[in-house]
Write a structure and sequence with these properties.
Elements lengths: L4 H20 L3 H14 L4 H13 L3 H14 L4 H14 L2 H15 L5 H13 L3 H14 L4 H15 L5 H6 L6
Length: 181
């Protein structure tokens, strides 16, 4: 093992701690600098990568945050939380196909994943691609994990209402509320 490994890891943790302090104070530019330094010393620091994404997002630099997450995802393809975050970043800027490409393999590997956000972000991506059946299917899977989630239920209702302007699908019919409610 590299003799500088432990020193770099300690320094990386110190930079991350300083960066998180600046995040708490809402100074995202300053925080991003410390988090970048942490990642230079320890490229495997997932926490710093996630907070760096958050800072860049808050600084209205979503494309840059995506580049950072993509680079990190290349070396951590098994990190499901990181992949969900990458999909969220793609959805934020309207790169819905990329989000589906990131999340679909996770479902194939993990089967019926119990991760609420995986299904939620997949639903958002499919809705963005105007694949409403798949969007509703993903959101229904999310509701099985977190029943009654208001945002997810609203997303389903929005897609159903949008479909209603055209030909109503069997899924939309099944979701229609009974008139007595």
């Amino acid at each position: 093992m590299d003799p500088h490994y432990y020193q770099n890891k300690r320094d990386s943790e110190s930079y991350r701690a300083k960066g998180l302090r600046w995040v708490r104070w809402g100074r995202f530019q300053k925080a991003a600098g410390y988090l970048e330094s942490a990642l230079q010393l320890n490229p495997n620091d997932c926490k710093s990568a996630v907070y760096l994404w958050f800072c860049l997002y808050k600084l209205d630099q979503p494309e840059l945050s995506i580049l950072r997450l993509e680079r990190f995802a290349e070396t951590h393809p098994d990190n499901v939380a990181l992949m969900i975050l990458l999909a969220r970043a793609y959805n934020t800027v309207g790169h819905y196909r990329n989000a589906v490409e990131v999340l679909d393999p996770l479902l194939k590997v993990n089967g019926s994943s119990r991760r609420f956000h995986l299904h939620g972000q997949l639903g958002t991506a499919y809705a963005g691609l105007e694949e409403s059946e798949k969007a509703v299917e993903a959101w229904l899977a999310a509701l099985k994990i977190r029943p009654g989630d208001a945002e997810t239920m609203q997303s389903i209702l929005d897609v159903v209402a949008k479909r209603k302007n055209g030909v109503e699908s069997p899924m939309a019919s099944a979701l229609r509320m009974p008139s007595e409610i």
